[in-house]
Specification:
mainly alpha; Helix Hairpins; 7 helices; elongated
């Protein structure tokens, strides 16, 4: 029995649902995060960008405070993408037909993700635009062919990760579940 059904069944019998343990609440939150990562291509794009930005930042001389700002920006974009996916999934479940108000809500949620991503990118440019450090990093890569090979392999894996289809299974509608 799923946790939603357990809660509804308990409430229907007049029982107060038992509080969720701290571990289970983190488990469900992590499951939701990985579900979005698995099913949403844009979340995978955000994740790949975050990995590269956070990996290369120390090589560019980014301070701890600047690194913290980068982490906050990444977290903001991830949270916005998760909320957008939650809203879209719920809207599709509640009202599968096209409706102008639902379309407006979905567009607003997608706009929030876009705003978070664009402003985070701008913060990244402000923090990471260090021509001398970027040039030194480029020279380091050119001096070490294995680093170039590792970067190319990581880029190929990143493209595969982004483009792979790993969507969540579609829940059958009430008509599809009938014999």
């Amino acid at each position: 029995m799923t946790r939603d059904r357990e809660t509804k069944a308990g409430a229907a019998r007049g029982k107060t649902p038992r509080p969720q343990s701290l571990f289970s609440s983190f488990f469900y939150a992590g499951r939701g995060l990985f579900s979005v990562l698995r099913s949403e291509r844009n979340m995978r794009i955000h994740a790949v960008a975050a990995v590269y930005v956070l990996f290369f930042s120390p090589f560019l001389g980014v301070s701890r405070g600047e690194y913290a700002v980068e982490l906050l920006c990444c977290g903001l974009v991830f949270a916005a993408e998760c909320m957008n996916t939650a809203l879209e999934t719920l809207a599709d479940r509640v009202h599968p037909e096209r409706h102008p108000l639902i379309a407006k809500a979905k567009d607003a949620a997608a706009g929030a993700v876009l705003a978070a991503a664009l402003f985070s990118a701008a913060v990244g440019v402000v923090i990471l635009w260090r021509p001398a450090a970027l040039y030194a990093l480029l020279l380091s890569f050119l001096a070490h062919p294995l680093w170039i090979a590792a970067l190319l392999v990581s880029l190929a894996l990143a493209v595969w990760f982004i483009l792979r289809s790993g969507g969540a299974k579609k829940e059958p509608s009430s008509e599809e579940g009938k014999p």
